[in-house]
Structures are given as C-alpha cells and as structure tokens.
Design goal:
single chain; Rossmann fold; 10 helices; globular; Universal stress protein family protein
Length: 271
C-alpha cells in the first residue's frame, strides 16, 4: 500500500512529505512515493496553447530543469532530517503533463494522495486530477504547514453536512479516523444540514465522534468550519469535495473552494 506524495514546488516539499508520513503511520506496512512531474514543453504532447503557456511560465518561475533540481534538493534535505524508522520513502521523477501524470501514477495500490496547496500551475492541475480523476482520497496541505512534534493525526475534525459526498469522504477517511484519539464532527447548522440530529448524518456505526453543533452566522460556512476546527485544536479536517454540481462549483465557487482558500490545516478530501 502506497501513499503518493505529489511534489509541485521546492518550498512546499516538507509540507507534502510531513503530511504523507503522518498519514502512513495509520496504515500498516505503508510506503511513500515522492512524485515529481517535470513539465517540460520540449517533451510535451499537448495542445499548442498549453505548450505556449508553459513557455511563458519559464519567464516567471525559471526553466523546468531548474525547478526540478530545486525540488530534488528539498527532498534530499527532508530525507536527511527524518526518522529512519518511519515509513520507507522512494523518489520518482517523470516527465510529462501534470494532469495525465498524476492520473497515471495513482495506481490501484495507492491508498491516498498528498498534495501541497501551492499557487502554481502544476499544483492546480494536480489538484483537479487528484479530486476528479483518480478515485482516491486527497490530503491537501497548506505549503507552510509542518508536522512539528506530531506523530500522527491524533485529533481529526469532520465537517458534517447532510450530503452523500460528505458521507463518502468520511468512509474514505476511516483508516485515519480509527487511528485518531479524538474525532470532532462539526455541524454548521443551516440549510445544508436538514437533519436536526447530527448523528443521523454519520455513516460509520463503529466509530463514534464528539458531535458539535455550531450555530449559523453571517460568516461563510467554510470559514466557520475551519475556525471551529482550529479552536478545538484539530490536526486534520475531513470534508467532501465538490458534489453533484462539481463543474459549476469548480469554476464559480462553493464550500469546497472556500475551504481551499481559508484552510490553515491539512484537508482530507474525497469526491
């Protein structure tokens, strides 16, 4: 069983790998594959517009070989500092388009993808591929986040909404929920939570969380959810990613996009 850590920039390598290592601690025998996709327009089979965009990108971010060297250096530095007794980590570098490469590398033995929420083109393409095309849960990590003294995701918050996408996300998160010492199921009451009893929205009968009902305010749902998770001291927030109106929400916004914008802790997302 593998965790696929997609590396999309040198500065965020520690965040992606720290998160992958914590996630691996909940999976017996898990290993981590650090994946770097070198998006080089000289070796791409893509539309001419995409190739032109990548060439313009070089003016802002540097040539692909320079970016690749920086990512590899950051990986080597992280490896030199980690506990040798932790889950084994292997390096893999492929050349190609980000979207197609992430989809191809998310093989059946991949239990989870981790990805830093960088602001570059590679991260955006990898995020879309991971959520919509791999069928795997995604651990999305703020680029400046670090595991620090954590040995695992001990306290997990769950954004509880009366929605099938949310229930699927909870089921996908079951291995990490079972390993947690505390689970806080946060229900921001409003029109999306039609059930008066939050327990009826929880799909795992063998795991019982602490149910917390948060009254609605003028604050956006995502901000309210993140603020409550932070107040409780959660290490990780589980949420559904894009429901039945996925294309509209991806393009124009919604709770998922709000979460991506405001979250300061790792998000475990499933579509």
């Amino acid at each position: 069983m593998r965790i696929l850590a997609v590396l999309t920039g040198a500065a965020s390598v520690p965040a992606a790998l720290d998160a992958a290592e914590l996630a691996a601690s909940a999976l017996a025998g898990a290993s981590i594959e650090a994946l770097e996709v070198v998006v080089d327009p000289e070796h791409m089979v893509a539309a001419s517009e995409e190739i032109s965009i990548q060439r313009l990108r070089e003016m802002r971010e540097g040539p692909p070989e320079e970016r690749a060297r920086a990512v590899r250096t950051a990986f080597d530095n992280w490896m030199a500092r980690r506990d040798p007794k932790a889950a084994p980590v292997v390096w893999r570098s492929v050349t190609g388009a980000e979207t197609e490469s992430v989809i191809r590398e998310a093989a059946p033995d991949v239990a989870l993808l981790t990805l830093p929420h960088d602001g570059n083109m590679d991260a955006s393409d990898a995020l879309h591929a991971a959520i919509f095309s791999t069928g795997r849960p995604l651990l999305l990590v703020p680029p400046a986040w670090r595991a620090a003294a954590r040995a695992g995701f001990a306290h997990i918050a769950v954004g509880l909404i009366d929605d099938d996408t949310m229930r699927r996300a909870i089921v996908a998160a079951e291995p990490w929920l079972r390993a947690a010492t505390r689970i806080s199921a946060i229900s921001v009451m409003g029109k999306s939570n039609v059930s008066a009893d939050p327990a009826t929205m929880w799909p795992l009968t063998s795991i019982v969380p602490e149910f917390r009902m948060v009254p609605p305010t003028d604050e956006p749902t995502a901000s309210r959810l993140v603020r409550e998770a932070d107040r409780l001291g959660a290490d990780l927030l589980v949420a559904g990613a894009y429901g039945h109106m996925e294309l509209t929400e991806w393009l124009f916004g919604g709770v998922t996009r709000e979460l991506l914008a405001v979250a300061d802790l790792p998000l475990l997302l499933a579509h």
